[in-house]
């Protein structure tokens, strides 16, 4: 009965109203709405132009020299590459001094190397929960493994948190101990974990662990991420189970793959001064290493960034490539300008030519990139060199194509009109006008006359034409000619509107509009003059 | 009559297949064919008709497509959200330890061992049906958007071009098959070996808080190549600007502790509230601007539309259906009568926002091609500010973290209407078929969700839900009321940026909605959009024939990638992988 309420209260009313809506919809028959898609009627010569430019370019000596010089500069870039650890400084003022060097690793696999390294305290946060029965209740815990270096002698000004951790280490005398929080109220007892191994539970006050913060945002307790600057960390200290860090415990808790974080803390003792060695050791093992000097922390991560010297070197090489390019490009452009002029004469637009040249140059430099890519893959070439090649070739393509199209002129300022008016004394019947226009526009080079219809109204006639522009994808110029009489004269107003599924610039739309307008206006005037 | 039944059955079969693939894919990899559905579904339908050797008319074809699309669109509403809420419920014990106190009511997830969750069925089915109101309101405004604002709906046009080509049988088989195989193989390879070059540690060591990575996804790249150039440019630049400049500046401005050298995914999660707060500020300003600037146009369009009988009726029906959201939110609240007035006020504001967002999303789909969740957090924000801390209310009203998404359905419906116009479709018939598809589909996809949860549970290697952990934690943060106070200042920063965008739109005509979408795009996808922009801007200039060829080949590539995902899903389910 209980499960029926949602059906009665939620589903039934919704279904009822939906059915009503559907029935109301079914009352209407609706009508067909149509839109033409437009078909292409001209073939684009783009591929042939690309082939032409390609063949002219590839056989010129200039491009060969440019490519060879790029190769040399790439090799040079590769040889000057030098990297360093990425480093960030953070402010640790006000934070308890818990470590001199700390290492954080995001996977459990590093544990073998960690154990071999120098450390004072190691903590492993296990994110796979531990579930067992205790006092007739099934409880879930997040395991935290702690291990300490027995021989560590600490300086006096060390934080009380460190003493807390060491005390916990000491409390975990044997491998089979689990420490839970005092407030759980569980008596000391023995439990067996799923594998059958027996563990003894003891309780201590674990509350101070909640506030143990290493650096702003990073806590000793488990955290599942930070959101908007606030770290989502374990808040319920009753859910922590402390165990001793041994291989056996790790194997039991982490069968197969498991999510874990290893934090190693090293505190410089009175006797040794091996801080720098420890830092180097940690940098080889951990994902990031934090070094604390007084109130500043330096965070090193094992990502490498290029040194400033390399970057300056790259910049210089880049400028050299530009200089070489500019000195050689003149010859190449001269060779191609002959082709360009011929193309312009037959009506290839600047956009088409520009795009073809960019594509050709991209193809050339992509083919030229193949040996570079192979060398990089094989290991001869540093990735720095590969990046240098990419940057230089992109700049080359950009500059060359710019120079190739710079000399071409286009009409800058097109008039803004999209309508025109013609006043005539003579009269031509609308049907005849329609026939005349159809005849004139049906074989036009630029437009295909899709539709022409006459609409009548008490005051005026409207002739509606729909023309498809042949040179673009689904571009329709729809125009209306309003025919009305006043003062004994006949006034024809032509208005054109262009719509396309391609996105044209405003200039291109104006161009097509003016073209359509001129065709229709010209057709209209010649029809009217013919008939008078 | 027999033909109509046949077309309905074909639609249900195609829709059922695609929605099954999407149910599993959504849960596991986040890869669905959702955005590409408008391209894949018509082709699959055509393919089915041709394979079965049935003669069909344009009308029957459109009915099948509408039904299949209706079925598919309910996938994210029912099975996607069911699995999400189920996973949230499953994680509650663990989340409690981290200080989250939330509860998932039985109406959202019954938590039973049986195959069918009968407790939650009414909620999901009702909310899906209510979301269909988006299609009704889209119907009302279709003339305004298509004819008055001249929005293109590029995906619909591209799909129509493709179908036309295949119907004319003027295709070149070898060429198309090669591209299909290319899409198929690259997608399958990527599902096995995901490609990601994480540059976040590198960038964040130069500018702490900046996030960047390089990824490659065939489906995403293919879809971007279909979008208009202007939108691509704005989208990519805004995405990269936000993650490489605005976020680092904000992080440093408010001294937010960001952990050093974290990975791309962790970084995205860490800055999620910052991005959403920025987004909120910007969206509030942009929506207000849009409503103010175009109010006379909107009002005149509304008055014209509402004079037409059918449109007026549809609008009223749509509003009635939508208002049921408030009723369901009421039903899912624990103690509704103690906070009756607050609840009523919240519901009214939320419903108003729903309608505004619906219109905005329909516009975005028309301009850019696909919709976006970028505008939705504003409802989450209003609910959060009003003090709502119950998962049930969010689930019933919030389009961002909750179930209903009339905006997405409205956007898809508009694409469908546009598509049908090219095939001489009767729009009312299309709308009815879409509604039938959505109703039946919501039941089908809900059952899929049940099946997946029952068979795999929430901890199975065959259906790993790891990618949902950040979402679930985010939902827990919102429902549990744990969003930090710094969010408010970031919203103000966002509002300032919004004002800057308004200026850019006023003086330079920059598209405001593309910017809003770009903000919520992760930078690896923003970079893919930039690459798509560069490639497309060259191809477009090479002439119409080449452009059309590229559009068609690109869509076949998308279909190949979609089929790749489908095959991978089937192999995973059968346990082969």
Q: Which value, in Å, is the CA radius of gyration of chain A? A: 40 Å
Structural class of chain A: alpha+beta
Tell me the distance between the termini of chain A.
Answer: 90 Å
How would you sum up the global shape of chain A? elongated
Beta-strand percentage range of chain A: 25-35%
Percent helix of chain B: over 70%
Q: Which quaternary structure do these chains form?
A: heterodimer
Question: How do the helices and strands follow one another from N- to C-terminus of chain B?
Answer: HHHHHHHEHEHHHHHHHHHEHHHHHH
Write a concise keyword list for the protein shown above.
heterodimer; A: 532 residues; alpha+beta; Alpha-D-Glucose-1,6-Bisphosphate, Chain A, domain 4; 12 helices; B: 577 residues; two-stranded antiparallel ribbon; 1% strand
Give a short overview.
The complex is a heterodimer of chains A (532) and B (577). By secondary structure, chain A is of the alpha+beta class. Chain A has helices spanning 4-27, 46-58, 61-80, 111-116, 160-171, 247-253, 275-285, 308-345, 350-378, 383-406, 430-441, 506-531, and strands spanning 32-33, 83-91, 101-105, 121-126, 130-134, 137-148, 177-181, 189-192, 198-204, 213-215, 218-219, 223-227, 230-233, 240-244, 260-266, 288-293, 296-306, 419-424, 447-456, 461-469, 475-486, 489-500.
Mind explaining what this structure looks like?
Chain A contains twelve helices and 22 strands. Chain A is an alpha+beta fold. Chain A folds into three domains: 134 residues, no CATH class; 208 residues, no CATH class; 113 residues, 2-Layer Sandwich (Alpha-D-Glucose-1,6-Bisphosphate, Chain A, domain 4), CATH 3.30.530. The longest helix of chain A is centred in the middle third of the chain and has 38 residues. In chain A, strands 2, 3, 4, 5, 6, 7, 8, 9, 14, 15, 16 and 17 form a twelve-stranded mixed sheet that branches. A five-stranded antiparallel sheet of chain A has the order 18-22-21-20-19, covered by helices on one side. Helix content of chain A is 42%, strand content 28%. Chain A starts with a helix and ends with a helix. In chain A, strand 5 and strand 6 form a beta hairpin. Chain B has 577 residues and is mainly α. Chain B has one domain. In chain B, helix 4 packs antiparallel against helix 13. Chain B is globular and about 60 Å long. The relative contact order of chain B is 0.19. The model of chain B has no long low-confidence stretch (mean pLDDT 86).
